[in-house]
Amino acid sequence: MNKSALTLAIPNKGRLREPSLRLLKSAGMSFEVTDRALSLRVRNVEVDLVLVRTEDIPGMLIEGVADVGITGLDLMEESDPDAALVPLVKLDFGFCRLAAAVPNASSIDSLEDLRGLRVATSHPRTTARFLSDRGIPASVVALKGSVEAATKIALADAVVDLVSTGSTLRLNGLRDIGVLLESQAVLAGLPEVRDNRLVRQLVTAVRAVTAGRRKRYLLLNTSVDNTAEISRLMPGLSAPTIVPLDDPEMVAMHSVVDASDLWDLLPRLEDAGGKGILVLDIGQLVP
Ligand code: AMP
Question: I need a surface site. Which of 16, 162, 231, 240 has the fewest CB within 10 A?
Fold first, then answer.
């Protein structure tokens, strides 16, 4: 591999693998990954992808084995005691929270109640730091897996584990008593990599994909009389584009809208006289 290329570490398996590959392709990288690939050169940009375990990525970044990497914010916090790494872009997937939970029948109701108790977790550093920052003395039992079972076998009074929907907690008869950390996937690296030209290009391209995913491009036709009202409903990035149609009474209006607003916006645009409304995905957006 060419040494001048940027080394980007990405998850080789697990829940962050596929969304990471999709994100990089949407950002304009051209590559093919086989199931067992360990590393590969991106065809159109000077980037080498290395595929490794999600939890090993923060360590590789700290050691300088990779320049940038995609991992969970929770893993970044857990594996980086000196807080050397920075999240360069929050990626809007892999959402979860590091939460404390206790058996349904327990009398513990809040994080404060963990005083003097045993807490089992696969995130021992983050948990110990969180509890000591808040002056809650508790002993932390480090486990590699099956954290949710720890209270059943009397290993601990409470657990601290990653939760996304809460269904695993419920299935194990546990109840959430407080959040230690909100997490999502991030593009991470040491702060100095921000000066690297290839990192700057990567950050712009990836940020443009995440920004584009939150927006839609909306087009509609309407009578010229309705343009003021429709402009008010969809002001866009600066103002909507208004294009004449081959009918002096009619115009087309185009605008960028928040994907999360569409549910309310579509019927209001229809009521305001919008016709032939089209909603298109946006590949990338640099505001
Ligand atoms: P993996 O173990 O390789 O599937 O990935 C684990 C990473 O995915 C975690 O460190 C989190 O950043 C993220 N993640 C998102 N949702 C969850 C969840 N419900 N449970 C565990 N990890 C999650």
Answer: 231
